[in-house]
Structure formats: structure tokens, C-alpha cells
Amino acid sequence: MKRLSSSDSSDVWISMCSGKEEKVLKKSQGYSIEFQAMLDSLDQEDHSGEEAGLITEKKRRLSANQVKALEKNFEIENKLEPERKARLAEELSLQPRQVAIWFQNRRARWKTKQLERDYGFLKASYDSLKLDFDSLEQEKESLAAELTELKVKLRRETSESSNHCAVKQESPLSESSEDGKPGSCSESVKEDPNPTPELPPSSAAPPLPLRYGSCSTSPPPPPPSSSRGTMAGRGYYHQVRMEENLPSGFISEESCNFFSVDQPPTLHWYLP
DNA sequence: TTGTGTTTTATTGCCTCC
DNA sequence: GGAGGCAATAAAACACAA
User: Fold this and answer.
1) pLDDT tens digits for range A38-88
2) Where do Pro residues bias regions lie (predicted)?
3) Which stretches within chain A are classed as H helix?
4) What pLDDT, on the 0 to 100 scale, is given for residue A48?
5) Does any strand B atom come closer than 7 Å to the Cβ of A246?
6) Amino acid A260 CA to nucleotide C11 C1' distance, rounded Å
7) Separation of CA A160 and C1' C4 in angstroms?
8) A194-197 long-range contacts, CB within 8 A, separation 24+
């Protein structure tokens, strides 16, 4: 498009020239006399075109009614067939190209809005998941603390009972320990070979298999590298890390049953 | 009134499809 | 190869605070 210096100081636009020409004209202001003369001649040509009744139009916004009609049509179908374009253009007294451009821009706006909506939805989903994760993490920590406490208590009771037996064994009137009830000494001293506060060396404890909702000793395949950046991928590593953080000796058969999941794990992120 | 940010209209260049 | 769509961009039109 080319901007003309009209006599009535209103901006007149001719839609027949390209934007590149306009840029050239704008940049050329204040240039050589020859070039200015050329611009003047162009202006004269444009004025003569105006007088000849060529398409002279201000760049202006569409009227409210036009926009309303276009919006209505966009709701029906956001793509424009040639027939509909021509009909709309005729109904709204617009150029078919204007209608096409309006639809194109409208689609772009719709896409932007859609992206914003999707982002909002994903963010809400993420926030909710994070809350869940945080509460589970807290629960895990309190359970671990409780477990430690219980183990200390158990150890104390065990040592007390063994002391009791040592005293009784010296006495000929000591009670028989054959019934195996609590308080019996023959086995209880041997119990608890793995006191918790003094964690055994890693060589003493066999490597614990990682569990993924079951007690299988074979670890699952590693996550695909492509999923490492995703939430699913992070979930995979979180589960591993959480179990690695458990106190040594915690993952036994009991603990396995305690934490095992009845349903098989969903590895949808891993399965193709 | 003016400077500035936003919205709307339009262009350009590239890509895909027929 | 032409038509049409899309992303990026330009620039006018508009809104609004200072």
C-alpha cells in the first residue's frame, strides 16, 4: 500500500501497491531531488487514479455489524469456502480478500486463546498433582519416623528381656523357656540380628530390589530417554528415589506387602 | 496533548495440497 | 503451478494514563 499526501490532510490509501513500496517511500523522504521528483510523479499518478474512480479506501476498521456477521459465520465454520466468501463479501459490501483476511486473523486469535486455555488447564493439573505429591511426601516422612520409633522401642524391649533371662539362667528356679512365649530367653537373645540404629554395612544387606507395585525381583526396564523430561518420567524416578530413601531393612516381605499395589502398574508412558 | 500499550487490518514469504 | 493456509510482521486505529 502506498500513503498519499492528500490535499485535505486525510490519509488516503490505495490498496493496489505493495507494502514494500510503501516502505521505500517512507524511507526515501528527504532524499535526492531526482528521487523526490519521482515520488511526486507517483503521487500525481495516484491522484489521477483516484479521480478515475479506482479503489481508493481508507484503512479502517470494519463496522460493528460487519464484525458481528463475520463472527456469526466464523462460529458456524471457521474455514471459508470460495462460495461462502463471495456471498459474505457481497452481503457485507467487502472485498472477498478482506473477508478471507478477517477469517485468517480470526483463526489466529482463536488459536492464541486456545493455547492460553490449554496452558491454564495444564497448570491447574500440575498444581493439583504437586499438592498430592507434597502430601504423600509428608505422609511418607511421618511413617518413616514412626517406624524408627517403633524399632527403637522393640530393641529396648528385647535387650531388657535378654538381661532378664541372663539373671534367671543363673538361678536354679528360673522358669522353663520351652513354651516359647514372650519372655522366653532361648531364642529371644538371638532375635534382632539387624538392629536399626546401627545400620548394617551395605555388604551385609543384599541389594534391595526396586519394586514397582509388585514384589518382582527383576527391575523394570529403564524409562525411555524421551520421557525423562516429562512428568511421567519424573514420576518414575521419584518412585525409585522414594524407595531408595527408605530405612535400610525396611523393604522386606512385610513391607513389600504393605506397600504393594493390587493392580499392575500402568506404564503407559513406557509402552509404545 | 502526548506517549505508550493493545487491537485490528493487511502484507509477505513459505508450505502443502490438488 | 496456482490456490489457500499459516506464522511473522507492519502499521493504522484505538484506549488510556499522565
Assistant:
1) 333 333 333 333 333 333 455 789 999 999 999 999 999 999 999 999 999
2) 194-209
3) 19-27, 33-51, 64-76, 82-92, 96-170, 231-244, 253-259
4) 36
5) no
6) 64
7) 88
8) A194/A249, A195/A151, A195/A155, A196/A148, A196/A151, A196/A152, A196/A155, A196/A247, A196/A249, A197/A151, A197/A152, A197/A155
